[in-house]
Fold:
Amino acid sequence: MYQLTDVTKLYATGKRTVPAVRDLSLAIGDGEWLAIQGRTGHGKSTLLNLLGMLDRPTSGTIEFDGRNLTRMREARASRLRAESIGFVFQTFNLVPTLSAAENVEAALIPLRAGAAERRRRVEAALESVALADRARHLPGEMSGGQQQRVAIARALVKEPKVLLADEPTGNLDEDTRDEIINLLEKLWRERGLTLVLVTHDTAIARRAGRVGVMSKGLLTIQAGTRPTHAGDPVTG
Amino acid sequence: MFFLTYLRRELRRRMRQAIFIALGLALGIGLVVTVTAASAGVRQAQADVLRSLYGVGTDVTVTGAPPKPVRPGSAPPKGAQTFQIGPGGAQVCQNGKCHNPAGQTIDRLDSAGYRPISQSKVAEVAKLSGVKAAAGGLVLTDTSITIPKKFGQPGGPLPTPNSFTVDGADTGDLGLGPLSAGTITSGRSLRSSDGTSNVAVVDSSYAHSHKLKIGSTVHIVKHSFKVIGIVAQPQGGNPPDMYIPLARAQAIGTAAGKSLKNDVNTIYVTAASAAVIPAVQAEIRKLLPGDTVTTAASLASQVTGSLSSTAKLANDLGRWLSVLVLIAAFAVASLLTMAAVARRVREFGTLKALGWRSRRITAQVMGESLVIGIVGGAAGIALGFAGAAIITAVAPELSASIPGSNGPRIVSVGGGATAGRAFPQAAAPTVAVPMSASVTVAAIVAAVLLAVAGGLLAGSFGSWRIARLRPADALARVA
Structure:
């Protein structure tokens, strides 16, 4: 799925240059669940942004299904994001003026699906996260857990190959956290997704096939305690 | 449709800001519409003044040169009457013969303001290149003075002059000249068959003040004319008091004591198109070098008084004020739109993460700005109508003075004034012009275009920011 080779990402802060990711080489297989841990500011979110083509590396190459993302034009990158990559954010990032169904529908707009097709897929996505009865509710009318489930439905409605989740339970209480992680794991298993999940929570990370730890921009891969979903060999 | 749903929800969310922006645009656009309406009203008033002078469709007007000023002590022109006051009382002299006019009424129909032009010149003008039609006319003033018996003696009474203006209209071509601008309110207008008849069409104001109606008789230099029609001229002008057939005016009118037979003192010209007016003016100047050739545009520039001042105010100050308010409104709209975009950075970053291209997000923001602009434009048009109505309701009556226009400008006896002239020449006539502001279709179209431009301008600033927005930065900024 992903092949990262000597990837470095530098940020300029005034006259200083700060390396967020350094010389990272990593392969992520189809259907794998990779958890990334690490302290705040050590490059976890930067790595996720690079995988999602929300940012470009300063050096090195990132390949996705054999395509070099590093040199990909923005229009094509947008298309790839629209078709193949789903995002789940810590702060849910729902559009506050749109209902749950409309937020989910927003992910289908770049795919130019017809209105009837969009409606069908939105209903199915909300059904899969058990929120069909909240379709018309605005984000402000829902709990944090419900909002995150809408965000997951939004990420999965386009049936992506990859789900990138950045601290998806960071803003949730313990019960809701378990509910969301159980949901993500269920969807990962059912849909054969490649799941890359950034988390501070070791208990959640332990449920992944592999765990990587980011420290000062360097990634160290640790063997997971559970098998990966796809069973592909993992190197790193 | 998702685009409209998103647009509507977003505008509803920031309704107060949207209303504020729309009101700013409305204020600017409303001011533009009001100023444009006021300008149009002033232009209309000017046009009415000019139309009442020279009629509808007259592009160029030729008037005979003004009479040469008489030097003190010089002999009066042959045939001219002079009026002298001496120890023995008042005397009227003509060709060296004097008599005491005490108790007499002296009545003259005179082309006092303009020297005559041969009527044959009308045909020559009509044949010039670029001339569509030409008609001659006589602008005359009937002045009568009854000399009291003891006039000139110590303690004696002063004579009382009475004057009115008479327009000799070419009954063969009534489509040109002052009569063409009027509306017959009673009776009928002149006809070609009236050429040699003593018939008159009387201006409605004059008819009202002198209690004239159809069938009444008016006296012009002791000739009786039957009133066959009452005509109302556009407001704001200074029309002739009555219109008689040109042939009759030529027969009874004089200029410097000479008959006006086969003469006119005004030629009304219609050009083939607006583009050829300057060329026609130049041609006529060549043909009639001593006479005054005036276009409607040049005459408009000679209009003075509060009408002229208001026109300048509306055109200059009003226009610049509108531009300034519009710039301020556009700037505020742009800044507020940029601020709104700044507050939605995470939202746009998220949409980019979902695969939305920048141009789609830009279209969303532009759509929102455009709707605000159109709402502002509609409100601005309403404000413009209200402003125009207020101007029409409260604006004071304007005045206009037109040098060289017909009217009761000469109050003297005889065509050739001398050192013994008894009455001065009056100043250019001043007429009252009601001020009205009317919103034109062009102003509404301009308002709509401005509203769209304002919306697009405000949206484009926000869109520029979105286009530069990198999704990772957008998401990191709030993470």
About this structure: The longest helix of chain B spans residues 15-54. The interface with chain A takes residues 1-2, 5-6, 9-10, 12-13, 346-347, 349-358, 360, 470-472, 475-476, 478-479 of chain B (CB under 8 Å). Residues 404-427 of chain B have pLDDT under 50 and may be disordered. The first strand of chain B starts at residue 60 and ends at 63.
